[in-house]
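[audit] Reproducing an earlier prediction to check determinism. Same input, same settings, fresh worker. If the tokens differ from the archived copy the diff job will pick it up downstream; this log only records the rerun itself.
[audit] input (130 residues):
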Amino acid sequence: MFNKGKSEILNSEKVDTIIGLSTTIEGTIRAEGTIRVNGHVIGELIIAGNIIIGDSSTIKGNIKAENIHIAGTVQGNITASGQLHMTSTAKVVGDVDVKNIIIDEGAVFTGHCKAFVENDSLTNETLNIA
């Protein structure tokens, strides 16, 4: 999904879980693999893998994952052990802790950003993924 600083949206064949456009989920979501959110989540997302947040999506809660691609709205803190990519339609309100970040022109980001170095990289234990 994320290769040498360049991100690309996965095709639907590689997505393990999809939260549909008309779906709202409340509570903590724990998953492995790649998850795509086209709907709405109120609660924490803890993903041992990648997450794609569609342009119509809203997330109200913290997100922890390896690679995160945001085109929608997130209100909460974000921890990405790999790459965080905010597209031009992204709106993020919260602090981010990342290894690598890409913010496209037009994206809205309100919060603090902490980037860590390779030898400080997060582990699954740090992300509380079990």
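[audit] rerun output stored. Observation attached for the diff report: The chain is about 0% helix and 55% strand.
[audit] end
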